UniProtKB/TrEMBL annotation:
<keyword id="KW-0648">Protein biosynthesis</keyword>
<feature type="binding site">
    <location>
        <begin position="155"/>
        <end position="157"/>
    </location>
    <ligand>
        <name>ATP</name>
    </ligand>
</feature>
<feature type="binding site">
    <location>
        <begin position="16"/>
        <end position="18"/>
    </location>
    <ligand>
        <name>ATP</name>
    </ligand>
</feature>
<dbReference type="InterPro" id="IPR014729">
    <property type="entry name" value="Rossmann-like_a/b/a_fold"/>
</dbReference>
<keyword id="KW-0030">Aminoacyl-tRNA synthetase</keyword>
<dbReference type="Pfam" id="PF00579">
    <property type="entry name" value="tRNA-synt_1b"/>
</dbReference>
<dbReference type="InterPro" id="IPR002306">
    <property type="entry name" value="Trp-tRNA-ligase"/>
</dbReference>
<dbReference type="InterPro" id="IPR024109">
    <property type="entry name" value="Trp-tRNA-ligase_bac-type"/>
</dbReference>
<dbReference type="GO" id="GO:0006436">
    <property type="term" value="P:tryptophanyl-tRNA aminoacylation"/>
</dbReference>
<keyword id="KW-0067">ATP-binding</keyword>
<dbReference type="InterPro" id="IPR001412">
    <property type="entry name" value="aa-tRNA-synth_I_CS"/>
</dbReference>
<keyword id="KW-0547">Nucleotide-binding</keyword>
<feature type="short sequence motif" description="'KMSKS' region">
    <location>
        <begin position="270"/>
        <end position="274"/>
    </location>
</feature>
<feature type="binding site">
    <location>
        <begin position="24"/>
        <end position="25"/>
    </location>
    <ligand>
        <name>ATP</name>
    </ligand>
</feature>
<protein>
    <recommendedName>
        <fullName>Tryptophan--tRNA ligase</fullName>
        <ecNumber>6.1.1.2</ecNumber>
    </recommendedName>
</protein>
<keyword id="KW-0436">Ligase</keyword>
<comment type="subunit">
    <text>Homodimer.</text>
</comment>
Length: 407
């Protein structure tokens, strides 16, 4: 596939609709999306089929969460004029590419993906011994490859899925990325290099392909670079023939690790729905007040006059996210000297969190009052996504040799 600058800069990420979004999603993911959309061609989507792989017995949560999630994205500043927002299951081409990739996805690769065994162990109440669950990262690969995304913002746990995507793309290109007669054309190009150089090329190719010698790969590329009598097409063929890659139909993405600090929850552990320690993006002022006031503090501060240690207090973890330097210093000194009480300490935190959540909550309410508008945004996004996905599928089918369907 030819790479226009726009597609080289394409970013894609998906989120499973598994419940209400909370401040952990905001600090860990959405703020990053909002930053990225300004400078990249971003595609963000609701991974509802992925949610189905684990929640096929409890689908209500998916249908309830899909639109809530889109509203939360928009309310936090994800902008449909800058990014393409869509729902996975409304772009059927993902399913077709998933199917085709599944033909060449070695079982061993899938069984070795670390999330596979981890999730089965973690979600012991669900039967995940399904074909669909094993194929989870193949579907994710299809999501990524169908848009030719070069960057995939993900958390640590998803890096292995992006790595699998790269391997599947490479395997696809290796198996199908050859023009008809590629080998013959490559061989005849070799003979144009002259006997001595041709022999050198062949031996470097063998050293790389049979022994994995990457120095030989570099030398081979340099050799081709120095050949004056090769056409551009022949040189491109010989580069592909050297590394065994063939023509690139699907391009390999990079994982973009989100470097946001870990968002602490109400109990000091990472904020996560499964710990029940979250604050939602639509939390009322009163609930924020109540939840922070009742947060545990350093147990050493039994009485107001007992000094404490902020590093042992989950409230201070949240201050690290919200407080400016002056407030932070005030907390540290006041806590260690018992100059302030815990409720004093919590007050600026409560105010900062209320100030952050209020505009999100208000924008969400306005969006909920106008569901037609939100549906239109998604409908437009699905159309745009489908257009790109269809182009890729035309290339993919042609590469596999399935284009007889289109005649
Ligand atoms: N598996 C991702 C998660 O659980 C969601 C997802 C599905 C995704 N398809 C994707 C993320 C493609 C990035 C790219 O968070
Ligand atoms: Fe925690 Fe603040 Fe109380 Fe210290 S003063 S224990 S940091 S809540």
């Amino acid at each position: 596939m030819s790479q226009s600058p726009a597609s080289r800069d394409r970013i894609l990420s998906g989120m499973r609709p598994t419940g209400r979004l909370h401040l952990g999603h905001y600090h860990g993911v959405l703020r990053n999306w909002v930053d990225l959309q300004a400078s990249h061609d971003c595609f963000f989507f609701v991974a509802d089929w992925h949610a189905l792989t684990t929640a096929y017995e409890n689908r209500e949560v998916i249908s309830q969460s899909v639109w809530d999630m889109v509203v939360d994205w928009l309310a936090t500043g994800v902008n449909p004029n800058l990014a393409t927002l869509f729902i996975q299951s409304r772009v059927m081409e993902h399913a077709e590419l998933h199917l085709l990739l599944s033909m060449i996805a070695p079982l061993g690769w899938l069984e070795r993906v670390p999330t596979y065994k981890d999730q089965i162990a973690e979600l012991r109440d669900r039967d995940l011994a399904t074909y669909g669950f094993l194929g989870y990262p193949v579907l994710q690969s299809a999501d990524i490859l169908i848009y030719g995304a070069s960057g995939v913002p993900v958390g640590e746990d998803q890096v292995s899925h992006v790595e699998l995507t790269r391997e599947l793309a490479r395997r696809f290109n290796h198996l199908f990325g050859r023009e008809p007669g590629f080998e013959d054309k490559a061989e005849s190009a070799i003979s144009k290099m002259g006997k001595k150089q041709a022999r050198l090329y062949r031996s470097l190719r063998r050293r790389y392909q049979e022994a994995g010698d990457t120095d030989a790969l570099g030398e081979g590329r340099a050799l081709l670079e120095s050949q004056q009598n090769l056409t551009i097409a022949d040189r491109a063929r010989l580069v592909g023939y050297l590394d065994g890659g063939g023509r690139n139909v699907l391009s390999e993405p990079e994982a973009l690790l989100t470097h946001s600090p870990r968002m602490p929850g109400l109990d000091g552990r990472k904020m996560s729905k499964s710990y029940g320690n979250t604050l939602s993006l639509r939390e009322s002022d009163a609930d924020i007040d109540r939840k922070i006031r009742t947060m545990p503090t350093d147990p050493a501060r039994v009485r107001r006059i007992d000094p404490g240690e902020p590093e042992k207090c989950p409230v201070f973890d949240l201050h690290k996210v919200y407080a400016d330097d002056a407030t932070r210093a005030w907390v540290e000194n006041g806590c260690r000297s018992a100059g302030i009480g815990c409720l004093d300490c919590k007050k600026p935190l409560i105010e900062a969190m209320q100030a952050e959540v209020a505009p999100i909550r208000e924008r969400a309410a306005a969006l909920e009052a106008d569901p037609g508008h939100v549906q239109q945004i998604i409908s437009d996004g699905c159309d745009r996504a489908r257009g790109v996905a269809r182009e890729t599928m035309t290339e993919v089918r042609a590469a596999i040799g399935l284009d007889y369907r289109q005649r």
